[in-house]
Prior knowledge:
This protein is mainly beta. The chain has helices spanning 3-10, 214-224, 228-233, and strands at 32-35, 39-42, 50-56, 62-69, 71-73, 79-81, 93-96, 99-102, 107-114, 123-134, 143-146, 149-152, 158-167, 174-181, 185-192, 200-208, 242-245, 256-262, 271-280, 283-292. It has two domains: 3-167, Immunoglobulins (Immunoglobulin-like, Sandwich), CATH 2.60.40; 174-292, Immunoglobulin-like.
Amino acid sequence: MTIRRFLAxxxxxxxxxxxxxxxxxxxxxxxVGISPQNFIVDLDSPSKVHAYRLMNMGQSPVRIKxxxxxxxxxxxxxxxxxxPTEASLENWIIVNPLELTIPPGDSQVVRFxxxxxxxxxxxxxxxxxxxxxxxxxxxxxxxxSSGGASMVFKSLFRLQSxxxxxxxxxxxxxxxxxxxxxxxxxxxxxxxxxNGHIRLSGDWALWPSSQYNATQGNQWLNWLELTNSERxxxxxxxxxxxxxRLSANxxxxxxxxxxxxxxxxxxxxxxxxxxxxxxxxxxxxxxxxPLHVGPAVR
Length: 298
């Protein structure tokens, strides 16, 4: 990547692709899909070819350009482009095709392989593959009006997916330092002690302190051990008012970050009891703690 190209990329606000594709602009939101969500590639077997499938669920053809970018996550868990070095993964990713058009209701495959021409150091290497929509003459331009004046505009999407390539032995280990509540989020402070990125997964539940007892907490934890069919056959008699799946941005090697888990509908100020059970990639995590609603962690 040239310095000029890097500066152009760094002037764009990037969103990170973690659990599903994030669209830049909202015109085609829900109309273009990508699978899988990201890739973990073992470079000890570098000859393998990998593939994304892009699906056009809209009613117009979609023209897409493919690009690559080196990146880091900053302290606010936002993607920032970085200037590549000789060992940067993006230098060694071969993509085909680099430009494509997907008819409405159809899909197309974009393949890539990683062929380093140098020996990469042990550890995890990463790059983002970017699928940028290009304007086409077939597209209908959405219009908006304000104060009697009509304005025509175009909103083009941008999809990002992370490619993680591993060399040698990778450890995905970590632990939590703290947990807090705000009126719309659960915050978990996580430290990555390994040499590969880690992700938070599992389940959480909140009860108002006045309605919580240890029996309820144990019932909920036991219920989590059931399969999906067993859960449907044995629903909780008193489910927690607020609960959900743990889902947050990845934490990069040797980083310490606050992860935000949104609480649907939010909660009122007051005291609560948290039960949380899941994984930090290879490390189990389980919390049972009284909490109160405070300001969002920054």
